Amino acid sequence: QVQLVESGGGLVQAGGSLRLSCAASGRTFSVYSMGWFRQAPGKEREFVAAISRSAFNTYYADSVKGRFTISRDNAKNTVYLQMNDLKPEDTAVYYCAASPAVYGATMIDEYDYWGQGTQVTVSS
Question: How far is it, in rounded angstroms, from Cα 46 to Cα 37?
């Protein structure tokens, strides 16, 4: 069992930056690949970024590539999402999730544990 708690969301103007954090507790953090997903009102939850257990592999949705960076600190049991050059279409609830996949995972059904989400709102 893994418990995940996101933080760092908020209101930012277009072009601004935010860094989301996701703190994990429970089972050993380093055995999980981690991912970030988001869900905007009226839309399905979508993949944003993922990172493998060792942090060697990272994956990004095309919509955020070059603007967002996922990283992890296994000593602190924390995964991060640095979001730069934010756009109004990035507005959503952002969720972190943990997957048993070794090399990272991009599909929702590959993830077993989810946080409660943190709201990100980007104003134009």
Answer: 5
pLDDT tens sequence across 37-55 = 999 999 999 999 999 999 9
Whether 87 and 19 have beta carbons less than 8 Å apart is answered as no
Cα-Cα-Cα-Cα torsion 75, 86, 60, 40, nearest 10 degrees, comes to 100
pLDDT of residue 121: 98
- pLDDT tens, residue by residue, 7-30: 999 999 999 999 999 999 987 899
Contacts of residue 50, defined as CB under 8 A and 6 or more positions apart, other chains included, come to 33, 34, 35, 36, 58, 59, 70, 99, 104, 105, 106
Q: Return phi, psi of residue 86, to 5°.
A: -65, 145
Determine contact, residues 49/59, Cβ cutoff 8 Å: yes
* Distance, CA of 110 to CA of 67 (rounded, Å): 24
**Concatenated DSSP letters of 51-119:** E-TTS--EEE-TTTTTTEEEEEETTTTEEEEEE-S--GGG-EEEEEEEE--SS---SGGG--EE---EE
